[in-house]
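Board notes (copied after class):
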Amino acid sequence: MSKFVYEYLPKEKHLDILDVGSYDVNGTHRGNFADNPNWKYTGIDVEAGPNVDIVAINEYNLGLPAESYDVVISGSTAEHVKNIFDWVEEIARVTKKGGLVCIITPSRIDEHRFPVDCWRIMPDGMIYMFEYANLINIKSEIDYNTGFHFTVGIAKKGE
């Protein structure tokens, strides 16, 4: 996530950032955004807890206005969502036109239920997810620098 922040987010621009699946199980992405006074980070998840600023109605209805965030991120959450296509459509819905989406999910890891474990997503699958939600793929690749081999997907919502 820090590489996405460094390479894609302008430091001088005000950005409203939404972290979908922000509940702190093994750490958070909040620190990637904390040092920039131009950025406002909001964590959302389906249950209250550490690093959760907003509790969503459910994973397919975040209960937020359409096109309300400049950047929507999600790390290590997609694999736990049963209907991945409804989920990514909801992410696209709350992203502003011209906004960015970054989804990071393992492409290879042992089963880890929280409460379910449904998916391993390869780059082609990430591209299809983005297309399904009318997002424009910028980059979808596997980061082999981690033991889990995370698939990193970055997309843009059309203007």
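Comment from the instructor: Residues 3 and 32 are 9 Å apart (CA to CA). The mean pLDDT is 93.
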